[in-house]
Amino acid sequence: MRIAIIGAGLAGLTAAYEIHKLNPQAQVSVFEAADRIGGKLHTVAFNAGPTDMGAEAYLAFRQDATEFFKELGLGEALRSPSGLPSLLYAGGRTHEMPERSLMGIPASSEGLEELLDDATCARIDAEGAAPGIEWDADSDCSLGALVRERYGDQVVDRVVSALQGGVYSASSDDLGIRATVPQLAAAFDALAADGKPVTLSGAVAGLLADREARNKARGYKPAVFAAFEGGYAEAYEALAEQSGAEIHIDAFISSVSKKGEQFLLKGAGDSQPFDRVLFATPAPTTAMLLRDLSPELSETLRSIKLASSVVVGMRFASATGLPDNSGILVALDEPDVHAKAFTFSSKKWPHLDRDGGALVRASFGRFGDDAITRAEEDTLVDYALDDLQRITGFDGRAAGLEEIYVQRWFGGLPVYGPEHLATVRRAKELVAQVPGVGVAGAWVDGVGVPAVIAQARQAAASLMS
Ligand SMILES: Cc1cc2nc3c(=O)[nH]c(=O)nc-3n(C[C@H](O)[C@H](O)[C@H](O)COP(=O)(O)OP(=O)(O)OC[C@H]3O[C@@H](n4cnc5c(N)ncnc54)[C@H](O)[C@@H]3O)c2cc1C
Q1: DSSP string of 149-197?
Q2: Residue with the nearest Cα to atom 35 of ligand 1?
Q3: 98-218: CATH number
Q4: What is the rounded CA–CA span in Å between residue 192 and residue 186?
Q5: Measuring CA to CA, which residue among 307, 283, 228 is closest to residue 55?
């Protein structure tokens, strides 16, 4: 059986590996438009060592991902973070990250008095007594809109969007509750099903109490993230090697058509027919490639939007003056700061604390603001250095800027808006109607590395069934 996979990002490579495991006789060809594999996973060789310029970590509580990496023989390469706290820059000063919150959403104003004004604090504390949210268990709505309505703008602009912007490259206004904080949607569902008033503070308080009870029962607070000693290259190279697939780089595919029961790929690559095709490309590309095979599926996927961002990696000769924190998130409403976040990589990850220098990643860009992704390289580096100094006092120019790498991620992440889950549900129904075709990638069941792996493995299994 001949199988084509389009896209050699995490989803495509995972699917190739899984197909090989399920059927070692299958001949798998992977076609990748870029001149390298890995997609949004990209480890760059800094003089001081391998450094990730895309994803840098994964959620360590996802045991399925850890088991998968161990299966690849990478168990020894996994590293834990230092545990240093992150900060939040809002209202022109740094604050501790709100501890008792769900993705930045508090249950009460306790401990937030310096971050939020008195009126906002009072509003949070009165929310539980306000008329309940009209919650529809069958749909989704904007997280930002709901938090604005219940708690006011400051909570969104200062806290929630800062946290969500770091994960989704989008403001909370553009993100769905069920799509991005499913446990909150489930808590609303449960309150509504029990006939209780659906309130934000009530739902969050319940979820925080559950989390604290779990941590207490466990006896410790587990590390949230894990990473690889040699960066994500360890994972994508292992996947490529162990997949047994023929991987073609610089192999852009422009369309896929059917010839009898088989598929023909147009563009770079093979003119031979394939028995099955897996599309492991971003949603708009998948939409373009599926035009002939399923116009309706193509149309459905076209509605998924992408958010762009830029990462500026900087290596300094000295770490003196860099705060002892893992990083800083910047509030949405900070007028004089361009960056949305800084990761102090050499503080966050002991394995990146090399030679006494400092490694810092500055991140820019949110959905709806593509201009910054296109800014000149020098401008981005200046913004990064100026913002870092303004926020932390650390003078990167004086600290000796030894290396810089600017990585633009045009269309880096799908936007999980309020319509996203319904779109994906419909897309899955339509995929099931096209025999021999599968889809995989960050747009399907979640953007995080564990979610992409789990979905790609499922897609591979159903393609082979
Ligand atoms: C800046 C950034 C930071 C992130 N940080 C984290 C993190 O710390 N932790 C975490 O868990 N997740 C993180 N993520 C998310 C995670 O990295 C991605 O969701 C995941 O890597 C996406 O994998 P994918 O295979 O679905 O897509 P991609 O990586 O986009 O792979 C798709 C591949 O298809 C190729 N392609 C596209 N069109 C064609 C075509 N026509 N023909 C052939 N090939 C084509 C592309 O070149 C690409 O290589 C981050 C994402 C970004 C952008």
Answers
A1: HHH-HHIIIIIIHHHHHHHHSS-GGGSBHHHH-HHHHHHHHHHHHTT--
A2: 7
A3: 1.10.3110.10
A4: 10
A5: 228
Spatial separation of the C-alpha atoms in residues 21 and 274, rounded to whole Å: 19
Q: Which amino acid is at 67?
A: E
pLDDT digits (tens, 9 = 90+) for 390-447: 999 999 999 999 999 999 999 999 999 999 999 999 999 999 999 999 999 999 999 9
Sign of CA dihedral 36, 40, 41, 42: positive
* Shortest-distance Cα residue to atom 51 of ligand 1: 55
What's the CA-to-centroid distance between 169 and ligand 1, angstroms?
Answer: 13
| Helix, strand, coil distribution of the chain in percent, nearest 5 | 40, 25, 35
Protein fold of 2-39+234-305+416-464: FAD/NAD(P)-binding domain (3.50.50)
Among protein residues, the one whose CA lies closest to atom 6 of ligand 1 = 55
DSSP-assigned states of every residue in 335-394: TT---SEEE-HHHH-GGG--TT-EEEEEEE--TT--HHHHS-HHHHHHHHHHHHHHHH--
